[in-house]
Amino acid sequence: MKSKCDLECNNTYILTYTKLIFLLGATLSLMSCQWQNETKSSVIVIAVDSLSTELVTCLDESETSNSGFAALCSESIRFTHAYTTSLLSAPALSSILTAQYPYETRLLNNGSNSLSNEIKTVAESALEKGYHTSFYSGGPPVFRRLGFAQGFEVFDDNTPVNLSEIYRPISQSLDLLSQWIEKDVKSKSFFSVIFASDLQFPNFSTKNNVGEQRATTLRGQTQEIDESLFDFINHLKKINKWDSTYLILVGLNGMSPPERANELPGTNLYNENTQVSLLIKPPTKKRDYGVKWKVDENVSLVDLGTTLLDIFNIKIPSRPDRPAPAVSLQSIIAASNNVFGKSRPLLIESGWSSWRGLANTRYAFQIDQYLVLYDQEIKTFNTLVDRQQLVPIGQNESGVLKILDGIKDFIKVYNLTSWTGLDPVVYRKYRLARQIWKESANESEEEELRILADMQKSKNDIVFWASYLAVEKKDWKELLRLAKKFKDENWEYVAKTNLGQKTKLSVGSCLNVLLLSAEVKNKNCEEPYIQDFKAWLMDKNRTQLAIRELFIRAYRRLLVDRKVLIANLLNGYTWDTVEIGILQPNFVDLFLALPENQKYKTQLSQEL
Predict the structure, then answer these.
(1) pTM for the full model?
(2) Per-residue pLDDT tens over the stretch 347-377
(3) Omega of the bond prior to 141 within 30 degrees of 0, cis?
(4) Where are the alpha helices (DSSP H) in 39-159?
(5) How far apart, in whole angstroms, are the C-alpha atoms of residue 242 and residue 257?
(6) Are 379 and 392 in contact (CB under 8 A)?
(7) What confidence tens digit (pLDDT) does each residue in 46-81 have?
(8) Phi/psi at 213 (5° precision)
(9) Three-class secondary structure of residue 477 per DSSP
(10) CA angle 601, 605, 607 (to 5 degrees)
């Protein structure tokens, strides 16, 4: 029989042991929670403007060195039929960041509106889940004013804008992201987005890692993205972030070729401008082989946004009013599947023509292999047999009525209207703008500009472009012709002076004020710009540095604005930039175009 002491000792031992087990369990549970929190997969989305599906084919990756595309292709699921939701980058990006269509977010273009604070973004949800968040923009048209900063602890849109550069190359954005990961994130999980605008700037030169100049072409800029991605992937591996991170490369839109008749980058809803690259590299365990396969079913950027919510373990909102459901791609990624199930229409839109006040919004639908353009005359294409979408299917052909029946709910629920189309002159204007602002326009393009200018009844953008190019190219006969047609005495004076013909200006001309050696007051020429230039001209000994700097700063700003606007026109005028009218010869341009003033032109270029 046990003594009282023995019983008490046994009870004490059992109680103590029980407490230890409980504490050990609680500690392990806490450690498990902490471990799960610290080992949540991070996500990096690299969204590239104009990255069509043709630019990343994953066909020759085994033969390519220093290629980020190849490295990504070897460990990713490639979605071969991914489609944007909008031709414009801001609405397309909003679909990724909200898992909503542009008609739901009401962010419909690149400038006249912004993402509402009432819409909860993926970044806000990720931040609530304990992820660190960051966003790096490479330039136009994605800036803070569009409302994209919601949920991002770091939102960096400080892109350089000067005479030598007007965007931030992807290499610099990736460097900033790398520094942030190492300095601020360290071992924690994060969600980061890069917006790369490089492909919009084929006329800008870049260098590779050994300092060699790349070609100033689309191919050169594609190589910049490819090689920068390669360096970034290697860096992620070096800092042990590669295996634990989703890396998503996605295009926001495609490219509109010049040969597509009667289409502009902002209106072209054919596949070449809507089908985008999409590769998703999921996390892997160490020593595992990376996944590699392709999915041929149709997916959209809304699906990608839904996938992000799924990755972050965020409840996907129910949208019973949406005519076609968005789906998460996570089940396909996890299960190595490439089958979705039943078909569904994907809505693609462009608010460019309504934004510019030229026509209403244009819509298209992708249903399986069929593309439907919802114009006043509906066009349906079988992209499987007609890859270039050149010949519409007859409306009475077998299956077409069933296809059209599949889009009725979209049209009814969202009250979509068919596109009215562009005025032919408007199309010619913006198509020509993409051609004449290249580094060298050919004679036929210049001739078309002259013909289009002659069709105008008064001065407008087309006339201003023609006169500006005449001054730039020193085509004084053309400037004189325009001067006489549109009754501009300043153009006429500059043209005749350069042609050696006698001429004079009226007393009230602002150009005449600049030509006079003394300071003259003229109520018609009291704009600060003209007065600052006059002060710059009269300060021959360079003694009034503050006054001189006022003009130099203003003139430099004008040149930068022009450079940005020209790049915008080359891209189809899809950014929200300064007024298009600054591309006309102003009084400074005209003054510096006179033969006797070349010394001032040289001096000014040195000070700039």
Answers:
(1) 0.89
(2) 999 999 999 999 999 999 999 999 999 999 9
(3) yes
(4) 68-73, 89-98, 102-105, 122-128
(5) 36
(6) yes
(7) 999 999 999 998 986 445 678 999 999 999 999 999
(8) -75, 130
(9) helix
(10) 120
